[in-house]
Amino acid sequence: MKLLASTADINEGEFTTTAANGQDIIVGKADGRYFAVHDLCPHAFVPLNQGYLEECQISCPWHGFTFDVHSGKCTSWEDFDGLETFPIEIKNGGIYLAE
């Protein structure tokens, strides 16, 4: 398992970016749960880390597309491609990419 971040470094409503398996990944906490999503909007291929997190939705900084960080579902446009999510495990204060 690859360590993505420490739980002590991510408070509710915050996120950070890291790299794993050749991809940039956003790791954060929303609605009391940690999440890991691909740091790339599937619409315009813009890094989402320049956007903002509000409740459980991350917004693309270019066109405002919003995605649920837990399910990956696009919440702003019906039938649009979702955001890639990654399975994680929380262990000993670390957030790990599950394999």
Characterize the structure shown.
The chain is an all-beta fold. The protein has one domain: Rieske Iron-sulfur Protein. The chain has no helices and 9 strands. It has strands spanning 2-6, 15-20, 23-30, 33-38, 52-54, 57-59, 66-68, 88-91, 94-97.
| Helix-strand topology string | EEEEEEEEE
Shape: globular
Per CATH, the superfamily is Rieske [2Fe-2S] iron-sulphur domain
The total strand number stands at 9
State the distance separating the first and last CA atoms. 6 Å
Task: Please report the number of helical segments.
Answer: 0
What is the CATH topology classification name?
Rieske Iron-sulfur Protein
Q: Tell me roughly what share of residues is in helical segments.
A: under 10%
User: Strand sequence of the main sheet, in spatial order?
Assistant: 1-9-8
Radius of gyration: 13 Å
Strand content: 35-45%
Uncertain regions: pLDDT < 50 for 5+ in a row? none
Main beta-sheet strand count, sense and barrel state? 3 strands, antiparallel
> Based on the structure given, which CATH architecture is correct?
3-layer Sandwich
What class, by secondary structure content? mainly beta
The overall average pLDDT, rounded, is 94
Q: Please, how many domains?
A: 1
